[in-house]
Amino acid sequence: MMKERLKKIMENARTQIDETDSLERLNEIKVGLLGKKGELTEVLKGMKDVAPEERPQVGQIVNETRQAIEEMLENARTDLAKKKRELQMKAEVIDVTLPARKNNVGHRHPNTIALEEVEKIFVGMGYEVVEGPEVEYDYYNFEALNIPANHPAKDEQDTFYINDKILLRTQTSPVQVRQMERGHLPIRMIAPGRVFRADEVDATHSPSFHQIEGMVIDKNITFADLKGTLQEFARELFGEDTKVKFRPHHFPFTEPSAEMDVTCFKCGGKGCRFCKGEGWIEILGCGMVHPKVLKMSGIDPEEYSGFAFGVGLERIALLKYEIDDMRLLYENDARFLKQF
């Protein structure tokens, strides 16, 4: 009777395995036959009812049946896995003749391109790039730069004040003051960064923009050093044929002060629409560091002198790439930015 039961289990196992079409179903069949509560396991539990003299023979048949079922299961698993893989390969086939998907990779913003070019020029002259806080003390932003309390620039209509002593910096000049206070002379530095002013947004103004300010402090620095440095800067940035012109001006933190123009790189100084027929384009302000500014920062103006200059990063980008509206730099229009 035990032999008949084993034979029936074997035939039933073969039928189920032959009919299965999935690995999940095959696993269920294995559990149903060989698991803790499986049919073959139940047979083994009934061995105690077999006559002692028949147990070796029946035990051998049970083992042979188990091995045969495990072999059938393994063969079926291999065949099903192979078929599944073949179907998967057909479904995921790649047509190598199709055009590849374009990888859209971003690139540097026009402001970043212009800034890196300016930094490269000045680093090549021996300057270091220094940064400072955007939230600044009124002292560093105004007072230490010889801008008194009643100066128009300190009006709340022009400056974003957090309280009466803290504000959003209106220029990167405070970085220069902090550098002078350290007392590590001589100084050759540029200070690029974001600045803030209470301006209305239009084609040439924004409440948030960028400046690059530079400064040199050393013994025997003269206005000739300033002119030579900025002339070389203009040539490197706009071309070897670029000429510069200095016009007298007034800044509280420099004396004497000037504004610098460069020959229009569009027409070479002849006059065109780009330079409004003048042949010159204003680009930056500059001057010799005021003795009072040196003294407030702990530097003896009798022994040291220096020059400083400041230029708007957006202005350089607008001029260099012939952009007529500053707002284009901040609108994140991919059609515009892809041109650079």
Automatic annotation (TrEMBL):
Keywords: Aminoacyl-tRNA synthetase, ATP-binding, Coiled coil, Cytoplasm, Ligase, Magnesium, Metal-binding, Nucleotide-binding, Protein biosynthesis. Its main location: cytoplasm. Residues 66-93 form a coiled coil. One of its GO terms (cellular component) is cytoplasm. Binds 2 magnesium ions per tetramer. It catalyses: tRNA(Phe) + L-phenylalanine + ATP = L-phenylalanyl-tRNA(Phe) + AMP + diphosphate + H(+). Residues 118-331 form the Aminoacyl-transfer RNA synthetases class-II family profile domain. Gene3D superfamilies: Bira Bifunctional Protein, Domain 2. The keyword Cell wall biogenesis/degradation does not apply. One of its GO terms (molecular function) is ATP binding. GO terms for biological process: phenylalanyl-tRNA aminoacylation. Its EC number is 6.1.1.20. The keyword Magnesium applies. Pfam families: Phe_tRNA-synt_N (PF02912), tRNA-synt_2d (PF01409). Mg(2+) binds at residue 255. Its cofactor is Mg(2+). It comes from the Bacteria. It is found in: Cytoplasm. Belongs to the class-II aminoacyl-tRNA synthetase family. Phe-tRNA synthetase alpha subunit type 1 subfamily. Tetramer of two alpha and two beta subunits. HAMAP family: Phe_tRNA_synth_alpha1. This is Phenylalanine--tRNA ligase alpha subunit.
